[in-house]
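Students often ask why we bother encoding 3D structure as a string. The short answer is that it lets us treat folding as translation between two languages. Here is a chain of 725 residues written in the first language.
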Amino acid sequence: MPEDWSTGHPPNVGDASSQQPQSQLPGTPGSQPPEDAGDTYKRIPRQKVNSALPKTHSEMPSSGSSNSSTAQRSWWARSSQPATGKPSAPTDTTRHKRWKNWMLWAAIAALASNSVAFIAVAVLLKLPSAPNCPSIFWPLASGSVRLHCAQVAASKQTVADLLEAIALVKALPKNHPMQAEIDRYVQQWSQDILVLAEDRFQAGKLNDAIAIANKIPQDNVANNLVKQQISKWRSLWSEAESIYTAAEAEIPEQHWHQAFMTAVRLLNVGNEYWENTKYDELKYKIESARVDGDKLVQAEALANRGGMKNLLAALKLVNSVDKDSYMYQKAQDLIPDYGRKMLDLAQTNLDRKDADEAIAIANQIPPISDLEMEVQDFITIAQAKRSAWAGTIPSIETAIMTAQKLETDRPLYNQAQELIARWQLEIEDVQHLDKARELAQPGTVADLSAAIAEVSMIPDTNPRIKEARQEINRWQAQVQTFEDQPYLDHAEQMALSGEISDLQTAINEASRITRGRALYREARQKIRNWTRQIQIIEDQPYLDQARELASSGNLPAAITAAQQIQPGRALSGEAQAAVGDWQGQIQARQNWREAQQIALQGTPDALAEAMRLADRVPRSSPLRGEVNPALSEWGHRLLIIAQDKARYDIPGAIAIAKQIRRSSDAYREAREQIAEWDRILNPPPPVEPSPEPSPEASSEPLSTNNPEPSSINNPRLLRNLNPNR
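And here it is in the second language, the structure alphabet:
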């Protein structure tokens, strides 16, 4: 019950007022409770206040009804007695009237008693009205009112209301009776403020959270908790920022895996803003940067391939990188490089005198601050060169006028000035060339000489000197041809007879054309041909004689005759080939004779050596008709010797059989015999018996007394081992 509410005192039983009925209607005026200093509560009738208090024995409804009934009976009894003070005997009519009056008063008393009880219960069940906090004059407000209004404000759970609640109760003195309860509430409200600040922190508003926490009074019992919480927030925020910065640092280096692994650490920092919003933001940045990085790699590959098409594709990829991408700056750094490559490509085409293509490439270079003026100057110079390449004086003058458009502050001004100076000299060269061509047009030696003299006036440092020299060489060749052609014609006429003397005269005549002259190469070729004819005429008898001697079988004499042809002459190659063939025939005969003599010994080694020597005879030699039968015979003899030896020495027999040469008819049979002997020396491993042999197989006993392989029982092998059987 509020402390400012006053309690009423129950009426005395012996009071004159107690003789009246105790029930009062709610609107009946009664004594009022005293008002408190704040005039907070409304005036409440005494009856309601008393009904809210615990009932005394005299205030119980039943007791009040009994007293009222007793008072009524007393009053009625007194009124019915005669004035003398002695009771008179009542009549029947009087008794009937008295009975009716008694019943009426009893009903009235009962009704009054029940009304009082009902009003009392209603007052007990009805809560007192709350104070109107906004209209309270706080300097005079009591502690309970302040606490109540502070609780009402704190229930709104906003920072301003919680701070207002704390301020309401903090105004009370430290020795207030409710200080313990106030401290408990202040601590709770401070924690509520920290919870709200934590929500701001989790939402990514660190400064707001700190500002909210700092609003909590410093002399609060939760002051240490506030400091700890702010320190924790700052530490966590700093850690998250460090992780974010570390991940960002990996992006420009294109360390995608490391960047992702670093970003994942944000998921455990303990802040929803960093774990969700900033992590998603960082992940998107890494993924988009990786996509942009792949674009740059692809652009680099295209640019390195070269060509206008690849460079334009590379520029398109680079320009597709967004401005907010981490790879944007790197992409922008590549654009000047690609522009420079395009300008170099245009220069290459201009060097090949393809001005139209060079200008077309330059016009496609994107606007780049470092290259824009240079590109414009390049186009101007390309246009000027295109005009100058026409080679006429008006076109060169047009080129000069075009190049003069470049001012002194232009990037290619110096190049333009050099071209202008060159073209001005070129105008003079063109004048000399044009005049020289006019002079050379008749084609006589005198005219050509005059043209040469005119062109020779062009200095070696002038731009058209190369063209001038070409014209000079052409006209000099024409002059030399006029001068030397008679010598060559006369030499050809002399060589027509084919005689050695005439051929030599032709050679001498053509030799008058010296090195460096226009007809020198032609003259030298004809001299070589005529010299070859002379050598063939001189050496052919020697070669014919050698071939005759070789046909008669006198190979040494044939070789001597052919060797008279000296190396380097026309027939020397043919003679050397014949000599080599004849020397091979001589060697073949010698080998054949030695083979026959050695074979007479009849031993295996002698037969093998004889076969080796005989096999040296070339297959194209006529001696092969004698050599082949001998090789077959010697091979069979060696095989027979080997078979005889196999009866007691199979390895020795194999060694003898292996000496039979492939060119012998016995070679294949010897190979088969060697294979048989190898199986005898190296028999195959015995077949392991199966785990469960069939009845048919198990019914035949295995022989264990003959360890020799089955090949011993081969009749053919036994016959080979013992040919006499």
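Translate back mentally: Residues 587-681 form one domain. Keep this in mind for the problem set.
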